[in-house]
Write a structure and sequence with these properties.
Distance between the termini: 39 Å
Structural class: mainly alpha
Order of helices and strands: HHHHHHHHHHHHHHHHH
Number of strands: 0
Shape: globular
Largest sheet: none
Helix content: 55-70%
């Protein structure tokens, strides 16, 4: 009984003491924000036909659909062309800022608003990758995805260095941004623009109030009990959201694999041949002909695709097998991006797969990127290694952390 109680205590402490998977959530943040940003930039010349007033799915049809499914989209707040252009431009800006990791807590919420605004405005313009992006944009709001590889992480290191020198860092941007967004949210609520979907308005107000409470708690010493409680709650929510993202990725592959098993073309090993010869999915006809020249190769790829998708959720507890299947799926999505001309679908799926990448691999990847980045100019004073301001449930301050946190145990800032 004591062993069970001790194991349960350690499990609870691990879930609440730190936000797990800091590198994985950073890759998810970068992957999905980059996918959406590139999509918006590529479709910029066609934005009016896809989501704007010149599209076949006009404003009136969109209003009728939203009235039945209560979807959230700020594009239906006005039929003005200026309003559409402003929302589209803001969606691009929010994606870029989330990619850079600037005020990631706020930008993750605004990124979600931008994704929902456009996708719910014209629901028939998306594909499977858009559906994944739609879901992940909501899940990202609950994660602490700016712990590493972000401007927020750099700002936290600089603030820790200032405190180590006896200085008191000041943040004027955060409170100003919080005040402006709260004012706009209040105006939208009073104007009745939040009367449709109930989940998104409640989520927006909850995050806004939580940010204000977090700022107030941050002005007190780290030993203040409410700040410790907020850390525990934030870590628990983050870890729960990370688990949901992993379950969602497994569900996508499991359902796709078992659905393919029922198809006759997948059973006889010829399913891969047909999409490669559809005109809509053949940007490189010569390459498609080369890949389908061998019937044996087509059969092997067909069967391997089904086997990997069905087996992947069952291999998560075996690190080597999981990494092998993960490498195959990422390679397969890269081939789909080139051969079938579906780059954004592939980028979205690769970003979802990144949640299962090993921490050691991601840290080495980050080290390579850091070495490839421009070095600081001669004479610049390097920033000192910070001490984490967070504390554990026992009230003990954790050991100092370097700029790159230890895998799986990062008590980094809530950004």
């Amino acid at each position: 009984m004591n062993r069970v109680s001790s194991a349960l205590t350690r499990a609870v402490a691990r879930v609440t003491d730190s936000a797990l998977g800091p590198y994985q959530t950073a890759v998810i943040r970068i992957g999905f924000s980059l996918t959406w940003l590139l999509f918006l930039l590529r479709e910029f010349p066609h934005r009016q036909e896809l989501y704007g007033p010149d599209g076949p799915w006009d404003f009136g049809l969109a209003e009728q659909l939203v009235a039945t499914n209560d979807a959230f989209t700020v594009l239906l707040w006005s039929d003005s062309r200026i309003w559409f252009e402003a929302v589209y431009a803001l969606a691009v800006l929010w994606s870029l800022l989330l990619l850079l990791g600037w005020r990631t807590r706020t930008m993750s919420v605004l990124f979600m608003v931008g994704v929902l605004a456009l996708q719910n405005r014209s629901v028939f313009m998306g594909d499977g990758g858009d559906n994944v992006l739609h879901l992940m944009s909501v899940y990202l709001v609950f994660t602490r995805c700016g712990q590493v590889w972000s401007l927020d992480a750099r700002r936290t290191r600089r603030a820790a260095g200032a405190r180590a020198r006896g200085e008191r860092p000041r943040d004027r941007v955060g409170p100003a941004l919080w005040s402006v967004l709260g004012f706009l949210l209040l105006l939208a609520t009073l104007a009745g623009r939040m009367d449709g979907d109930r989940f998104i308005p409640v989520l927006l107000w909850t995050v806004w109030l939580a940010q204000g409470l977090w700022w107030l708690a941050g002005r007190r010493a780290g030993t203040w009990q409410p700040r410790i409680l907020l850390d525990l709650v934030a870590n628990t929510v983050h870890n729960g959201a990370l688990l949901v993202i992993m379950a969602e990725a497994c569900l996508i592959y499991a359902t796709a694999g078992w659905y393919k098993v029922q198809g006759s073309r997948w059973q006889d090993g010829t399913a891969v041949h047909y999409p490669l010869h559809l005109e809509y999915f053949s940007p490189w006809p010569a390459l498609a002909d080369l890949l389908t020249a061998s019937g044996t190769l087509v059969m092997l790829v067909t069967y391997a695709t089904v086997a990997v998708q069905v087996a992947f959720p069952f291999t998560l507890f075996n690190r080597r097998v999981k990494n092998a299947l993960l490498s195959f799926m990422i390679l397969e999505h890269a081939v789909i991006a080139v051969v079938l001309g579906l780059p954004f679908f592939s980028l979205a799926m690769i970003a979802a797969d990144a949640v299962f990448l090993p921490t050691s691999f991601l840290r080495r990847l980050g080290g390579l990127a850091a070495r490839a980045a421009p070095r600081p100019r001669r004479g610049a004073v390097p920033l000192p290694a910070p001490r984490s301001p967070a504390r554990t449930a026992a009230g003990k301050a954790p050991a100092p952390v370097e700029a790159a946190p230890a895998p799986g145990r990062v008590p980094g800032p809530r950004t």
